[in-house]
Structures are given as structure tokens and as C-alpha cells.
Specification:
222 residues; mainly alpha; rod-shaped; binds zinc ion
């Protein structure tokens, strides 16, 4: 059953009692096979959240035997599973038999890329573009950097922050806090230069690339 191709004259594993399906020969654990049977025939009895082994067994065997509904079931359940750690995601992404290799890898990669990108953005304040009316460029630049590190970067890197980098900057109220002491023309020039350069595009591109990979993967399940 697990070997391809099988000639028309040879007996098929599982055909009769003399030719049983030999799971050991194929490297499949009894527990893995039992988990697949539970999913196929007794799913209602599974108490949530089922252990990770349950999902990983189903995933392994359903990819091997091409059971797309089972693959889809697992990939729908895993992202909300409490034990779906980055380590498990990487482990799955390295599994050659798994169709979602690109998608899982992209998800893990995306998260670390965005974290790195945010850190780089936070710790590298954009240059100030001073206006002709700027009286003291040093003080002006220091005000900007204080705002960037003490306000912008702090909010961007806060563990509870869900806003994208661009949104945080757009919501800045320049009439309050440190920025209110900066010459308005310098602030305007600086903001204009930031939006012209648009360093925030990078994050959007990464998200779009990962979304594409995940869509392709989902489409491949049918
Ligand atoms: Zn200035």
C-alpha cells in the first residue's frame, strides 16, 4: 500500500488477511495512525484543545495519503492552538513532505523580518531637514531625536502595540510634547522627506509576499 508502483499481478497490502497493511514497514507509528482514525471516524469525541501530537499525526499522514480536507482541518486549527510555538512552526516548515513548507516558513520569517525592521526603524531616526528659519540646528535635531526615541520608537516597540509604523507617525500630534518646541518649518520639511522616502513600504511588501505564498498554498490543497 505504501510502495509505488504496485504491479497489477502483485497483491495489494490490506487486500486480505494474508497481505495486511504493515505500518512499521512504512515508518508510521501506531499512535499516528490511531490519531488519523480518530479524526476520520470519531472526531466529535476529541476534547479541545487536542494535543499537538494529534494534529501533527493527522498532518503527516494526510499529506502522505493526500487527504486535503484533513490537511485543511489541521492548518485551520493549528494557528490558534496554545502549543503552536515558533519551534513547532519551524519544525513543520522543515518537513519536506509538507505542502505548506513555503507558507509556514514565510510566516515565521515574516514575523522576524518585521521585528528587525521595526527595531531598525526605531533606532535610526530620519535626518532632520532644517528650514532657512532654523535658529539652532543642533537643538532642533536633538528635539527631533528625543521625540523619535522617547515617543515614536517607544510606541512602535511597545509589546502591546498593534499599529503599523506608518500609522503611528501619522497620528502624531505636533502641537503637543517635544515636537511643539521644534521649528514648524523644520518639522514639516522632515515629515515631507520621510513620506517621500517612505521607509514603511518595506513592511507592506513583506506582508504582501507572505500573503501571496499562503494563498498559493491554500489553493494547492484543492
Ligand atoms: Zn531645524
Amino acid at each position: 500500500m505504501f510502495e509505488l508502483p504496485q504491479g497489477s499481478s502483485s497483491a495489494v497490502d490490506g487486500q486480505d488477511d494474508d497481505h495486511p497493511i504493515d505500518l512499521d514497514k512504512s515508518g508510521i507509528q501506531n499512535a499516528e495512525f490511531c490519531h488519523l482514525l480518530v479524526f476520520l471516524y470519531d472526531q466529535d469525541e476529541v476534547v479541545a484543545p487536542a494535543p499537538m501530537e494529534y494534529f501533527l499525526s493527522i498532518l503527516k499522514l494526510s499529506v502522505l495519503w493526500r487527504i486535503p480536507t484533513a490537511v485543511k482541518y489541521v492548518t485551520n486549527q493549528l494557528p490558534t492552538h496554545p502549543d503552536f510555538t515558533p519551534a513547532i512552526q519551524i519544525q513543520l516548515s522543515r518537513c519536506r513532505a509538507h505542502m505548506g513548507v513555503v507558507a509556514f516558513y514565510k510566516l515565521v520569517q515574516l514575523k522576524s523580518t518585521i521585528t528587525e525592521f521595526k527595531a531598525a526603524l526605531a533606532f535610526n531616526p530620519p535626518d532632520v531637514h532644517h528650514s532657512f528659519s532654523c535658529i539652532d540646528e543642533n537643538i532642533c535635531s536633538r528635539l527631533w531625536e528625543s521625540f523619535w526615541w522617547g515617543g515614536y520608537a517607544k510606541q512602535l516597540l511597545h509589546p502591546d502595540n498593534t499599529k503599523p509604523p506608518a500609522a503611528i507617525l501619522l497620528e502624531v500630534d505636533a502641537s503637543k510634547g517635544i515636537l511643539s518646541h521644534m521649528p514648524p518649518a523644520c518639522l514639516q520639511n522632515t515629515m515631507d522627506a520621510i513620506w517621500e522616502d517612505n521607509p514603511f513600504n518595506h513592511e507592506q511588501e513583506q506582508i504582501e509576499e507572505a500573503s501571496r505564498a499562503i494563498s498559493e498554498w491554500m489553493a494547492a490543497l484543492y
